[in-house]
Amino acid sequence: MTLTRFQRIALGISGVTALGIGAFILSAPHAFYASYGISLGGDASLLSEPRAPAAGLAAFGVLMLAGIVRSAFSPVSVVSALTVFLAFPAGRLLGLVVDGVPSVSVLGAMIIELAIAALCLIAFRDRLWRNASHGSGSRVAAS
């Protein structure tokens, strides 16, 4: 899959964001969550919970970036970027409905996630629509 310059930029922004946030949470969860006004405390179980998905987020970030340097990874990179940056704001929107309005920092994160999701949807819209019109959901990013 050959990527345009705009698609590479979208994957770069997505990948650096996911890898950076994942790595920050893995290495300094107290500092990361304090920036949102959340205190994690010292419970090892509580600290393990944000670290596990943070490792996944960092790994998805690496996959997103891999598609920029190796075209064979591009389909996986696109799916990774769309999965992360559509799922995170979807979860936050659900939380808004179920739990109420979170802090301004969390709302800011949701806005950034929505912006990256929009960037990815715009960057890969031709591939998404072309594959959807062929009726093959399993090939969304493969062509």
List its traits.
143 residues; mainly alpha; globular
Description:
The N and C termini lie close together (6 Å). The mean pLDDT is 92. This protein is globular. The chain has one domain. Helices cover 77% and strands 0% of the residues. The protein has six helices and no strands. The longest helix is centred in the middle third of the chain and has 26 residues. Helix 1 packs antiparallel against helix 3, helix 1 crosses helix 4 and helix 3 packs antiparallel against helix 4. The protein is mostly helical and 143 residues long.
Secondary structure: elements and pairs:
Elements: H1 5-27, H2 29-34, H3 44-69, H4 74-99, H5 104-123, H6 125-133
Helix pairs in contact: 1-3, 1-4, 1-5, 3-4, 4-5
What is the typical, i.e. mean, pLDDT?
A: 92
What is the helical fraction, as a range of percent? over 70%
Q: How many DSSP E strands?
A: 0
Number of helices: 6
- Whole-number radius of gyration? 16 Å
Show unreliable segments: none
Query: Which class best fits the helix and strand makeup?
Result: mainly alpha
Shape: globular
Q: Estimate the strand proportion.
A: under 5%
Order of helices and strands: HHHHHH
In whole angstroms, how far apart are the ends? 6 Å
